[in-house]
Amino acid sequence: MTEVVTAPEQGATEQLDRISHWIGGRIVPGSSGRAGPVYNPATGAVAAHVDFASAEEVDAAVAAAKAAFPAWRALSVSRRAELFFRIRALLDQHRDDIARFLTREHGKVHSDALGEVARGLEVIEFACGIPTLLKGEFSEQASTGIDVYSLRQPLGVVAGITPFNFPAMVPMWMWGPALACGNTFVLKPSEKDPSAPLFVAELLKQAGVPDGVFNVLQGDKVAVDGLLEHPDVAALSFVGSTPIAKYVYENGTRAGKRVQALAGAKNHMVVLPDADIDMAADAAVSAGYGSAGERCMAVSVVVAVGEVADPLVAAIKQRAEKITVGDGSSPDSEMGPLITGQHRDKVASYLDSGAEQGATVVLDGRETSPDGDGFFLGVSLLDEVTPEMDCYRDEIFGPVLSVVRVDTYDEAVRLVNENPWGNGTAIFTRDGGAARQSCAGGVVLVRRLEGVAVRRPARLRAGKRQLLHARQGRDEPLARPGHEPGQPGISPNSVERSLRLPDGRVFAYREHGDPGGRPCFFLHGFPGSRLEAEPAHEPARRAGVRVIAPDRPGIGRSSPRPGATILDVAADLRDAADRLGLDRFSVAGVSGGGPFAVAAALASPDRVAATVLVACPAPPDLLDMAQGLTLRQRLPLELSRRRPRAAGALLGVLAKVAGRRPERWLRMVERDLPEPDRQLFRQPEVRALIVADYIEAFKQGSAAVSREVELLLYPWGFPLDRIETPVFLHHGELDTTVPVEAGRVLAAAIPGCRATFYPAEGHFSLPWNRLEEVFGAAAEAA
């Protein structure tokens, strides 16, 4: 009997003998006499046995939760929030331990398991803000002598029945908000991977959650039916297969409970002829084979429109066959096994049925599976699939990607809408009009033009899940009148591309100028803006330069890189050059992009042919605020919403450096912001918050935040005298924000610097009519 749950050691072979219930704040061994095996999917061996609850044990768990409810409900929301901060800290501290449970019992690779824990923690962090989320409403004098108010009150005992594919994340999504709102909770996890919830229960107890507030009930249908029928369970949430979701919904609502039942899915990814093949193939491989395809949001169908099909299938095949399948605990593995041998055999059967019904088996995972008794199935790719085939009609829930070919955009939309399954749809195109048209009447997420549109079809059907979050992208020009969907909707002068860095992150960039010219990374102070593309195209083309303008990490389409410094960005440029096959390249930094260009030159002295600096601030010239402006997207849109103290510290530093004249700085920022950001800055409450409260927050800011701000604001602490590449500096004399003294300081600090000074000609001294000279210098040096 196991009385205390402990995390498995890395590489350990000893497994838990018996997995029991957690009721009333302690481990309670099962008494039903029924149990089931828990496998290690990587070896096929039984790792433990899990007790199955009896009806009496269901009653005991619900009774413990009911008894704990009055005191938990009476606890103030501020005290519950305080507990959740402790819960969050313990979960974060033990995230690696939880991930090892997931890898051992589910099979997913360790990095994927860590990602699951991180996504669960996001909801726990959300629950930490519960005091602001439980506010009611009040209307005075709604009618004569009548005031109307609403209260948000807990329901009582609520239950969650969770799936095998996310044994840590989905439970956190359920019990986190439920407990924060004052409910008590009974969790029935999957019997296939039941250990992580017990370990989390121990952590909740350590955090100070009272006994009985959180309970874990192991089991099968007996436990599920007991929770559905129990009169003291007020609400229930379920995630799993469609037949069981219908069963849970029908029986739970019949018993008078609030029920949320989330079922199966068949997610489609539409690729139009104008799409970036590399980006689409990367997305298909990641979304189709991640976590061995055992995700409810996995892409299982790629809809290839027109002539894009052949190159797209080839690109997917090229990437997929390189995926390393193996034990999830091995650092070399990129995809682990499936959850059970039975499930593996079911998934593999769709390869046979697909071939029999006319599909082409491009990749057969049975031929690339590792040797041994584990439940492995390699990545599989079916082409020329039709809607009548079983592999299209059924939810496979494994590493099998089906490609359906259609001739037109309208066919693709009709195919998606007629599919009986739900969840999401993606569209890959450069045409904003096509993305907009495909999502008419639904919920849409558009991420730039070469991005993803996830939608809920207008004609809602039974069994489909409603998307909870949506966001409209910016800066995407919509199609002109008469513009045909699927054709390029942006200027031909700018082509959006992406590649995947060695650590798996996406490096997104725009390319313009001369496609066959000498390569030059073009780093602007306003990453991702249209300023980078159009004005630079013609000068670069005339100078014979191929301009590569990357998005910064976390801004634009590039993957976020938490805590990234300028040196990290320089390392990304070096890795991107490797992937692009560039042995020699130049770097050009404009305005706040200057420090990034210098960092790249220092990081790759043997490969950088020339460094070009245009209108860049110098170390002592902090009054110009040009470097601060590189943060303009983080400042109003991210920090002020998610990390107000960090935003306060940042603005406080800026205010201090600017001679305590924040209004002057804000006016300068507002003048050069795009309209959406400018509207935000114009809101009186935002300005008041920035100018007054945030300066005070800076004075009280922590040392850690101050260090972070210092990294962002003072990047020119580089040893400029060690730059080995030719440096060309172009600086304006009449610009009020970057005076000529700044350029002279830089010119004196960099040996052999060739400086050119000229009258300022507009926006932040950016000499657009002199860029041909800039790129010509870079090309000549290369």
In summary, what is this structure?
This protein has 782 residues and is an alpha/beta fold. The chain has 27 helices and 28 strands. The radius of gyration is 29 Å and the shape is globular.
Describe this protein's structure:
- It contains 27 helices and 28 strands.
- The strands form seven sheets. An eight-stranded mixed β-sheet has the order 21-22-24-23-25-26-27-28, sandwiched between helices. A six-stranded mixed β-sheet has the order 15-16-17-14-13-18, with helices on both faces. It has a five-stranded parallel β-sheet with strand order 10-9-8-11-12, with helices on both faces.
- The chain is globular, with a radius of gyration of 29 Å.
Mean pLDDT: 76
* Integer-rounded radius of gyration: 29 Å
Tally of DSSP β-strands: 28
Q: Could you tell me how far the N terminus lies from the C terminus, measured between alpha carbons in angstroms? A: 71 Å
Shape, please?
globular
Secondary structure: helix percent: 25-40%
Number of helix segments?
A: 27
List segments where confidence is low: pLDDT < 50 over at least 5 consecutive residues.
1-7, 10-16, 440-491, 526-533, 618-660, 692-716, 734-739, 761-766
Largest sheet: 8 strands, mixed
Strand order of the largest sheet: 21-22-24-23-25-26-27-28
Structural class, from helix and strand content? alpha/beta
Question: Strand fraction band?
Answer: 15-25%
